[in-house]
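Summary for the steering committee. The consortium agreed at its last meeting that each partner would contribute one worked example illustrating the joint modelling workflow. Our contribution is presented below. We chose a case with several input lines so that the handling of multiple components could be demonstrated. No manual editing was applied between input and output; the record is shown as generated.
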Amino acid sequence: MLVSYQWLKDYVDIKDLSVEETAERLTRGGVEVDMLHPRSEGINNVVVGYVESCERHPDADKLNVCQVNTGEQTAPIVCGAPNVKAGQKVAVAKPGAVLPGGMKIEKTELRGQTSEGMICSLQELGIEQKLVAKEFMDGIYVFSDEAAIGSDAVAELSLRDTVLELDLTPNRPDCLSILGVAYEMAALLDRGVQHPSVTHGQAGESVKDYIAVQVETPNDNPYYGAKVIRNISVGPSPQWMQNRLTAAGIRPINNVVDITNYVLMEYGQPLHAFDLDKFGSSDIVVRRANADEQMKTLDEEVRTLTNEHLVITNGEEPVALAGVMGGSFSEVQDDTTTVLLEAAYFQPTRVRKASKDIGIRSESSIRFEKGIDSGRIEEAAERAAKLLEQYAGGDVLEGTVEVDHRPTENPMITTSSAQLNKLLGMDLKEDDILSIFRRLRLEARVDKNHIIVDVPTRRPDLEMEVDLAEEVARLYGYDNIPTTLPAGTTTPGSLSPAQQKRRKIRRYLEGSGLHEAITYTLTSSNRSNRFQLQDVPGTVDVSMPMSEDRSKMRTSLLPHLLDTVQYNRNRQLNDVAVFELGSIFIGEKESLSKQPHEKQVLAGAIAGMWDVQLWQGEKKKTDFFIVKGILEGLFEEIGLADHIQFHRSNHTELHPGRSADVYLDGQTIGFIGQTHPMVEKEWGIKETYVFQLDVDALLAFTANALFYETIPRYPSITRDIALVVGEEVAAGDVQQVIINAGGDLLHRVSLFDVYQGENLSDGQKSLAFSLVYLDPERTLTDEEVSKAHDNVLTQLQEQVNASLRQ
Amino acid sequence: MIERLKELGDEALQEIKEANTVKALEDVRVKYLGKKGPITEVLRGMGKLSAEERPKVGQKANDVREHIQEKLDEKSAELEKKALEEKLQAESVDVTLPGKEIKRGARHPLTAVVEEIEDIFIGLGFQVTEGPEVETDYYNFEALNLPQEHPARDMQDSFYVTTDMLLRTQTSPVQARTMEKHEGKGPVKIVCPGKVYRRDDDDATHSHQFLQIEGLYVDHNIRMSDLKGILEAFVQKYFGVDRSIRLRPSFFPFTEPSVEVDVSCGICKGEGCRICKHTGWIEVLGAGMVHPHVLEMSGFDPEEYSGFAFGMGVERFAMLKYGIDDIRHFYTNDIRFLDQFKRA
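What follows is the complete predicted structure of the assembly.
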């Protein structure tokens, strides 16, 4: 909503406030002024000049040399506008003038002809192209005859003004009019409101002799009023009105249309003017459109309607789409003499539906959708009639044809000072509250301890006691509400165990050298089925995606993490180590029947060098075991180390020899590995290691409580063995054999060497383990250890065909 | 004989003085104090002395011996010290060379902000609660007093996945869900962080995906002044004790009265600068008293209970805190960006 400060001053006395102060008051009161637009910033020395003569430039086809009288003198000005003519009053920027954007006008010569200034278009004076009347769009602006020669053109165009751009919240449609904003200012300042004049003459005839109105669905249209104005002569509207419309962001068209728009801005009441002679009948019928009914709107587009839409018809065919846009054939044009003026209340939902379906948002539809003041329709209609009489030479026929189904009584809200104080935490007296209601022009009466408020049609947003509380608070001032802390029960705040564990996971991974990434949840079709943890029966798809790239919910975090590796690689950032913890979304085979399963997943992608200490010549490339080590540390961190196993994976997107599935007590919960070289090629990345784990499964597992284990008081005995096994034998399996065979005395086993090559036959490898034997209760004897150790060796021989390396 | 001992003593001291290596010093020791040394020699010849002289010479010989030993020890300590110094000198490093880097990752700035805010509210007695990102129309809109056709639905065009499910446009549905779980009994004190989605084209200030934190406090006798108190406590913990808040009337369908909360600008201290657009204030969150319809729909009796709710954009807090000028940085995951938040 654009509000001209000068226009606003017509209805409320704010002379003592600057524009900035006015804006501040409104903003603090709840009507946010988003921006101030001074209309003539920087313009000076532009006056109204009279073109005494206009002749073709001797040396240029498209230029004219005009003699222009600017009051003090007549001087030549070269002008290239196609519409310049002798006898016009025009805006002249004199030498020394400054135009918007800082352009300076000087006396100059154009192809040998002296030019003492410039004849300006409205655009050159800072008015947006879309607000310039069509006839002046491609040329200079021409004033009406009344403009005084030599007078200030900026004043003539009312450009010494500032426009307040309001950012209105949906609950304040009352401020979609200048008068509405005046009411708001008046309430904030405790001042009066001056309504414009609506008195006009009456032609002898009655409007009832001309037209009849019938409303088929009164719920859609609780009020329809029609007036007729005869003997109209269509022409330009007065300069001041054009100026104000321009300030309000509306292009002037002709006096009749301008007047309906002017009253729209003034009262917030949309009006429509039909040419009654072209209307096609004298019966106005308001009804739902028929299915597939067609009509051509003002913009010459043919619209196909449904029976969800409300139309104004001449008894046969639609002449307007109610509240949204008029029809083409009954439009007011230059030859119109009889105007049918519609002032109505259309149901917000009905207009919203039509506006949305047809895709038109007009100044009218915006206001109907949000709810106009149903109590001021007649006044607005009379105001328009008055202006048509005054500025379009019309004769207003007596009366209005009306169909009125509006409620006869205003809603009431009962409250009390005690209730309002309780809600706000304040201590206001009843008189203070009544005084605020008076400023807001809400009629209130006191009945014992209650205050009963009669809600005016102007404020349909006031429905309940809390709405009144807001009115009291904002007028009294939020700064004046005290600051307290709740008095009730105190509660301990905390994170849930799952939330704590997720924080722990993040902290651990950060500490291990991985950066946390956050990527987008929405992804493309060809990213949405990659690197999945489990079979996904279906994806969750956005019905109307903004782009293919953001059309599905992710089912894995890895595709976007690989994108992250690629993004950084494209910027020569080859060493990337990132993780993400977030949700994936599991859909159904067919379309969704219930909310999708949202699973918390942890994933990571690591590429390039893991460790670089350049000056010491140390470099360590990321490999499988670095990433595995990180995960093992993570499992230890959350108490799962003893429950995790790694087994070779057959995930097709991973390197077949460098990948493993991760098991938690026998259940797969994720995978780890190098991405398959084909995948790396596809993504345009180099050797990259990834992992993805089901966090919900990790969090669901309750680790044993942490209990301290006695530090051994007796010495342990260590036996190191080097085994020779077939190269296909997994070290983990060998270790498991040792653990099982070692019995209670075997305290710890660790692998300390893996060797293949010289001194070993082909197809064999050597694994060296260190076995630590310990009895916490006493000192072990050599015989006891040897017995246990021999069993280990026997079992190794039997189960994995391992022999001691000679 | 005494003379001879004295001479020997002086000679020995001179040689000790001249010995510059551990080896040379050892040679001196052997030479003078060894079994075949001159002092032993002298003592051997003591038999020839008179009974009177004998103790005197013995005494002198011991004195000389002790004196030499003392000097030997001194010199030896000195030489060891010197040798150690040389060794240490040889072992010295250039302390200005860079240390071995410990590989450390960084917390994502959005996580850092979420956790900081969570912790402040945990300190104020709130629980952290989460909810689904794919939400039903009912919880996302209707339970929050936004029935079908409500004009405020215009404010947030959404990603629908079916006719009645969408990517949540706000974290407020968690409010409704949590209140339902409480079955009409307070207090409810929660903050709900999470991802939300709106149909916006991504640019420097818009993102189709972003993070919000919603807060809710429902109990008997909760007043607007309590909302002011809690938010002031929060703002001063997050932004600093020298900051103040101001409330401006606003509109949200699920609260009434509704307010925008501004915090005084920390850059210019309220004088007006580029950051606060010359107003001295920065808008940081929206809040209000829970609308009676919302309480009622979630099973709370508005006659008995009242409450307040607030919501804030995590990206906005992060941008203010770290001076980040483009919201897209948060989701691009450029290592050069992430790397800067190791101490966040």
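Chain A touches chain B through 94 residues (CB under 8 Å). Chain A is about 25% helix and 30% strand.
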